[in-house]
């Protein structure tokens, strides 16, 4: 497992390192632990997990989701082997299917059935597990409604891995404004191009028609890149590793973000913007959970953004949030070991 496996891997890697450093006896199982066949064949991987847990000296299992396919099988294995289970939902499952992953189209019958099956699995996993961890206030509220209580629900936000340093976000204005959009763009919002047009109009009204700027889209997919072709102020970049992305973002003037569902999600790149001291352009719904959570870091007036941007980004450092998760694990880990 490494940071190129995505943002979910970064959270898991950071937690694993913190647990090891804290002296917790831990064994990690990832998607490629059992070799090539385990990656390609989910059944083979689950069988290997079963035998690993049967032989394990540990009695506490922590699973980070998604992906969600192995969840029910690992839950049943833990129940059968009498292992305590901590489930970490880095993303919603049934609630995201129910919202059609932020798309405006209604659910078709296939997705409706998938949502009901996912919800049934989640309810049973909640009964089995010792703790059910989510990463946003919106997910905590949604799952409280599904489960009927929040007695075992804990909220641990994602955060960033950027060190606290004073020279972040300082750059000579040589080529105009550097505007960045890390991660997905059109995937979550069919009106994203229209919003981009409005943003560029806003720039020209704020700084004048002769404003110089470049908008960098990092890690966007091919269909999105094709729709952005022909824009003189747009540069589409390939996906970068986390460390490469942070290095590129560090001197940006403005950050752009598209959030799949503003009532459920906080986004991952938003934390990186805040950690780097990058003001975020506010084109979000003012009454949404996302807007309420990040309000001090969102700006409609970009002229004042750099001056008024809070310098407390380190409060969202992943070390701080993972300490809370570490305490949850230690509370349940009476025998001193976990998988």
Structural class: alpha/beta
Number of helical segments? 14
Percent range for helical residues? 40-55%
* Count of domains: 2
Q: CATH topology of the largest domain, anyone?
A: Rossmann fold
Largest sheet, described in full?
Answer: 4 strands, parallel
Low-confidence stretches: none
Number of strands: 12
Strand content: 5-15%
Taken from the alpha-carbon principal axes, the silhouette is globular
- Spatial ordering of strands, largest sheet: 2-3-4-5
CATH class of the largest domain: Alpha Beta
SSE sequence, one letter per element: HEHHEHEHHEHEEHEHEHEHEHEHHE
Average pLDDT confidence is: 85
N-end to C-end Cα span: 15 Å
Rounded to an integer in angstroms, the radius of gyration calculated over CA atoms is 21 Å
User: From the coordinates shown, what is the CATH architecture of the largest domain?
Assistant: 3-Layer(aba) Sandwich
What descriptors fit this protein?
single chain; 339 residues; alpha/beta; Rossmann fold; 2 domains; 4-stranded parallel beta sheet
Summarize the structure.
This is Glycosyltransferase family 4 protein. It comes from Selenomonas ruminantium. Helix content is 42%, strand content 13%.
Verbal overview:
This is Glycosyltransferase family 4 protein. It comes from Selenomonas ruminantium. The chain contains 14 helices and twelve strands. The chain is α/β, with parallel strands linked by helices. The protein folds into two domains: 3-159 and 318-338, Rossmann fold; 177-316, Rossmann fold (3-Layer(aba) Sandwich), CATH 3.40.50. The strands form four sheets. A four-stranded parallel beta sheet has the order 2-3-4-5, with helices on both faces. Strands 8-7-6-9 form a four-stranded parallel beta sheet. A two-stranded parallel sheet has the order 1-12. Helix 12 (289-294) links the parallel strand 10 and strand 11. Helix 1 (7-21) packs across helix 14 (318-332).
């Amino acid at each position: 497992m490494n940071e190129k496996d995505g943002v979910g891997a970064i959270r898991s890697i950071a937690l694993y390192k913190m647990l090891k450093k804290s002296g917790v006896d831990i064994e990690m199982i990832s998607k490629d632990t059992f070799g090539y066949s385990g990656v390609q064949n989910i059944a083979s991987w689950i069988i290997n997990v079963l035998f690993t847990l049967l032989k394990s000296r540990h009695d506490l299992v922590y699973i980070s989701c998604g992906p969600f396919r192995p969840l029910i099988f690992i839950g049943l294995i833990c129940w059968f082997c009498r292992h305590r289970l901590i489930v970490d939902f880095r993303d919603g499952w049934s609630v995201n299917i129910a919202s059609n992953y932020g798309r405006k189209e209604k659910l078709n019958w296939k997705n409706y059935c998938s949502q009901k099956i996912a919800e049934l699995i989640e309810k049973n996993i909640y009964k089995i597990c010792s703790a059910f961890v989510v990463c946003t206030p919106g997910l905590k509220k949604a799952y409280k409604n599904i489960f009927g209580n929040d007695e075992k629900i804990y909220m641990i936000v994602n955060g960033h891995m950027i060190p606290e340093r004073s020279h972040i976000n300082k750059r000579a204005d040589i080529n105009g404004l550097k505007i960045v959009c890390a991660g997905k763009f059109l995937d979550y919002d069919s009106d994203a191009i229209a919003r981009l047009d409005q943003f560029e109009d806003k720039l020209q009204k704020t700084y004048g028609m002769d404003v110089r700027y470049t908008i960098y889209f990092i890690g966007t997919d091919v269909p999105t890149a094709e729709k952005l072709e022909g824009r003189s102020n747009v540069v589409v970049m390939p996906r970068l590793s986390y460390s490469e992305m942070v290095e590129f973002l560090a001197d940006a003037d403005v950050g752009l973000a598209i959030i799949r569902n503003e009532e459920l999600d906080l986004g991952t790149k938003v934390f990186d913007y805040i950690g780097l001291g990058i003001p975020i352009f506010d084109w979000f719904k003012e009454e949404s959970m996302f807007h309420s959570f990040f309000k001090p870091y969102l700006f409609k007036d970009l002229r004042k953004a750099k001056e008024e941007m809070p310098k407390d980004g380190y409060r969202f450092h992943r070390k701080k949030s993972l300490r809370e998760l570490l305490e949850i694990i230690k509370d349940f880990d009476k025998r001193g070991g976990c998988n």
